[in-house]
């Protein structure tokens, strides 16, 4: 059996905060306003897995009211969900991702992000694709007020 999951995440951008996307540190003059490290891509990947397996959403698993998750490394949260997904008999086939950011230019980082996401999903690197889109200078993305990510993931039951 195959199941598809969709993940989305948005973070407001604020000055002088480290920007980490897909587990990769990116040089920039602003970063996410977030309880955790605010990694939009890893949060969207996590939600895609939770969606495909009918396990709810990231806020249910890791409430942002929980002081334990303050400044949390999102790769640790994703790894916990991957372990749960595997224990329920699912494996990830592929993930296709879009990061929405007016700046900075992400093309130099896309391959590293895809590799890191694949590593966290425990699948070969060629099964993760990362795309980037500007906001064409309009809306909250285009005005550099926010960054966002969307991810679709396909999972297969290990039983078949
Ligand atoms: O051309 P189109 O309007 O569809 O897309 P765009 O959002 O203007 O992005 C054009 C190119 O810039 C794409 O190849 C993106 O991967 C790249 N890009 C990037 O490197 N970094 C961003 N923050 C946004 C887009
Ligand atoms: Zn988030």
UniProtKB/TrEMBL annotation:
Job description of the protein: Involved in the biosynthesis of isopentenyl diphosphate (IPP) and dimethylallyl diphosphate (DMAPP), two major building blocks of isoprenoid compounds. Catalyzes the conversion of 4-diphosphocytidyl-2-C-methyl-D-erythritol 2-phosphate (CDP-ME2P) to 2-C-methyl-D-erythritol 2,4-cyclodiphosphate (ME-CPP) with a corresponding release of cytidine 5-monophosphate (CMP).
Site positions (Transition state stabilizer): 35, 134
Keywords: Isoprene biosynthesis, Lyase, Metal-binding
Family: Belongs to the IspF family.
Biological classification of the source: Bacteria, Pseudomonadati, Planctomycetota, Planctomycetia, Planctomycetales
A molecular function (GO) term: 2-C-methyl-D-erythritol 2,4-cyclodiphosphate synthase activity
Biological processes annotated in GO: isopentenyl diphosphate biosynthetic process, methylerythritol 4-phosphate pathway; terpenoid biosynthetic process
Organism: Maioricimonas rarisocia
Domain (2-C-methyl-D-erythritol 2,4-cyclodiphosphate synthase) ranges: 2-155
Listed EC numbers: 4.6.1.12
Pathway named in the protein's UniProt entry: Isoprenoid biosynthesis; isopentenyl diphosphate biosynthesis via DXP pathway; isopentenyl diphosphate from 1-deoxy-D-xylulose 5-phosphate: step 4/6
Parts of the chain that traverse the membrane: none
Subunit architecture: Homotrimer.
Catalytic activity from the UniProt record: 4-CDP-2-C-methyl-D-erythritol 2-phosphate = 2-C-methyl-D-erythritol 2,4-cyclic diphosphate + CMP
Name of the protein in question: 2-C-methyl-D-erythritol 2,4-cyclodiphosphate synthase
Organism domain of life: Bacteria
Claim: Lyase is one of the keywords in the record: yes
